[in-house]
Design a protein that fits this description.
With 351 residues, the chain is of the alpha/beta class. The protein has 15 helices and eight strands. An eight-stranded parallel β-sheet has the order 1-2-3-4-5-6-7-8. Helix 1 packs across helix 15, helix 2 packs antiparallel against helix 5 and helix 8 runs parallel beside helix 9. Bound molecules: zinc ion (ZN). The site of zinc ion has 6 residues, from strand 1.
Length: 351
């Protein structure tokens, strides 16, 4: 993995969208770039690091770095499989031998250990937002599954919610990064649990929750049975986003839009399997939250040559570039911007 190195310099607030540079020059870079660490470091890396960025698809649970994990473990007396950074890392992060969606999801067995109490939920949230701010993310929509986070230690759902809300308040005030929260419905938990998550999202609507999301095992659990719950969320004034067209086919993208009222689609890569679904997304201008590295790691896309990011963009389908689970994937949003240019053929201006 190529990682953006170092902390990106802060730029003034007020930009809720990625800047659109008109040249490939690094803003404010010294003439001749003589302070570049090495001629081998591409200037692109610096350009994307300095861009103020927006991430609309980032999971809180998958954004806790191994470093943050160790500090949480020490502060809250959490027993981990290892307390050595490099030995712990493969429990939390994709390795070269991890190839499947199951390998990816296995990491969440260990990640659940982080949420020992309300304060640990708060501290984890703060760490995640600080990492985003260091990558010059100015607006972040952070999604999480309260039911998953509460499960490991049997926490009350309110403790999870209150911890996350408090973490957002603290870290946003400290970093200036604005955060919207998205409550996740895990489709494999069934419609009854979905109602619990939806009601929780409604109750915390005036404390930073902006939307409800349908996530997890799309292959075995298509979106249809969740239409009622998501229509209820819309009626309550929440926005809706749905993971669709990742592990499942284009039909799920259609159902997410037509039956669940999705305002955005998580991933949507496999919309490319049906031209009519592509047309629907284009006509209704439903943004796709694409996650290039994650889509390769989980097998949602078979390779960069068929990854549709640039084609969607050129053909008028609204696309956004996001991280999904940056700590699990071992990436930053800057890395994904760089990937969009180097692997998907987007121009720097297109970012
Ligand atoms: Zn996701």
């Amino acid at each position: 993995m190529i990682k953006a190195t170092g902390a990106a310099p802060q730029v003034p607030l007020g930009s809720a969208r990625p800047a659109q540079p008109t040249t490939t020059e690094t803003p404010g870079a010294p003439a001749g770039d003589r302070f570049s660490p090495s001629p081998a470091v591409p200037r692109l890396e610096e350009v994307v690091a300095r861009l103020p960025k927006v991430d609309l698809h980032r999971h809180l649970e998958g954004s806790i770095t191994p470093e943050t994990f160790l500090s949480l473990a020490e502060k809250h007396q959490i027993a981990l499989p290892s307390h050595d950074l490099e030995t712990l890392r493969p429990y939390l992060q994709i390795t070269p031998t991890d190839k499947t969606l199951l390998d990816f999801l296995k990491k969440f067995d260990t990640i659940g250990l982080a949420f020992k109490n309300k304060e640990a939920c708060r501290d984890a949230t703060e760490g995640v937002i600080r990492d985003a701010a260091r990558d010059n993310v100015k607006y972040l929509e952070l999604r999480f599954s309260p039911i998953y986070m509460a499960a490991q230690y049997g926490l009350p759902l309110e403790d999870v919610m209150d911890g996350v809300v408090e973490g957002v308040a603290n870290a946003s005030a400290e970093t200036g990064t604005k955060v919207g929260l998205i409550v996740i419905v895990e489709r494999q938990m069934g419609p009854e649990k979905a109602k619990v998550a939806e009601q929780l999202a409604e109750r915390y609507k005036d404390r930073g929750v902006v939307a409800l999301d349908l996530a997890n095992d799309e292959f075995h659990f298509p979106p249809g049975p969740y239409a009622e719950v998501f229509q209820q969320a819309k009626a309550a004034g929440l926005k809706v986003t749905v993971h669709a067209g990742e592990a499942g086919g284009a039909d799920n993208v259609r159902t997410a839009i037509e039956a669940l009222g999705a305002d955005r689609i998580g991933h949507g890569v496999r919309a490319q399997e049906d031209p009519q679904v592509e047309q629907l997304v284009r006509d209704l201008r439903v943004p796709l939250e694409m996650n290039p590295t994650s889509n390769m790691q989980t097998g949602a896309a078979s390779g960069w040559d068929t990854y549709p990011l640039q084609r969607f963009y050129k053909e008028g389908i609204p696309v956004t570039i996001n991280t999904d689970d940056p700590a699990v994937s071992g990436i930053t949003l800057s890395h994904e911007y760089q990937t969009a240019v180097e692997q998907c053929g987007l121009s720097v201006e297109g970012l």
